[in-house]
Design brief:
Blueprint lengths: L7 E9 L5 H10 L11 E10 L2 E10 L18 E7 L3 H18 L6 E6 L16 H10 L3 E4 L8 H20 L8 H4 L9
Parallel strand pairs: 1-3, 1-4, 4-5, 5-6
Antiparallel strand pairs: 2-3
This protein binds guanosine-5'-triphosphate.
GO molecular function, one term: metal ion binding
GO biological process, one term: signal transduction
Catalytic activity: GTP + H2O = GDP + phosphate + H(+)
């Protein structure tokens, strides 16, 4: 099979505090419906083929059990993972603070400066609907957090199906951006084996 015919596989993991809407986001993306009830997740794996820049990617999306500051980082959520979706609820300041905690754990585990990541502010439909909790985190704060961590950022509502597809498109874009950057590593910073060819490694 020629290399161009080999399907490109990408693994994306969805992390964040409990009850921020991780499962609802993934289920809306994969199955196009909203689940109103709350069923805490243990772990669910979904598959979907996505097109990015005219190329098809077979994506595996891993929906995880919610984390807190005491959760021990699970190596399963870093080894073989290409991209991260870190979710907070715009109606929960605590869940917003957890994003940096989780991001730092990933960086620490991977031993890199940054990873392909989309930070997602969920439940934007709650902002004006009293008496349910309303917005505690402003868009500007989400944007700033993303900039500080070289991540993409978007606000969503799984309930209203707002920006749900965009989350996973942005994640693929972050993954591919970095793999293209790897291909463009200048020869001076590559090993002798790759110097002559002027390329480094790439994600297949
Ligand atoms: N209003 C509103 N509620 C939402 C939205 N997304 C999720 N919810 C609700 O929030 C609750 C938790 O949603 P889940 O998707 O189960 O959250 P989770 O992050 O997967 O939770 P864990 O499995 O415990 O980590 C459920 O009652 C959902 O119906 C949203 O966009 N808007």
């Amino acid at each position: 099979m020629p290399p161009s015919a080999v399907p490109k596989r990408r693994k994306i993991v969805v992390l964040g505090s409990r009850s921020v809407g991780k499962s609802s986001l993934v289920v809306q993306f994969i199955e196009n419906h909203f689940v109103d009830a709350y069923y805490p997740t243990i772990e669910s794996i979904f598959q979907k083929t996505l097109k990015y820049n005219g190329v098809e990617f077979e994506c595996e999306i891993i929906d995880t059990a919610g984390q807190d500051e005491f959760s021990i980082f699970n190596s399963k959520h870093a080894i073989g993972i290409h991209g991260y979706v870190l979710v907070y609820s715009v109606a929960s300041r605590n869940s917003f603070n957890m994003v940096q905690t989780v991001y730092d754990k990933i960086i620490d585990f991977c031993g890199t400066q940054d990873v392909p990541c989309v930070i997602v502010g969920s439940k934007t439909d709650l902002q004006s609907s009293s008496p349910v909790p309303s917005r505690q985190v402003e868009p500007s704060e989400g944007e700033r957090l993303a900039q500080q961590n070289h991540a993409a950022w978007v606000e969503t509502s799984a309930k209203n199906n707002t920006n749900v597809d965009q989350v996973f498109e942005l994640c693929l874009a972050e993954i591919e951006k970095r793999s293209e950057r790897n291909l463009l590593v200048p020869p001076s910073s590559t090993t002798a084996a790759t110097k002559d060819k002027g390329y480094s490694c790439c994600i297949m």
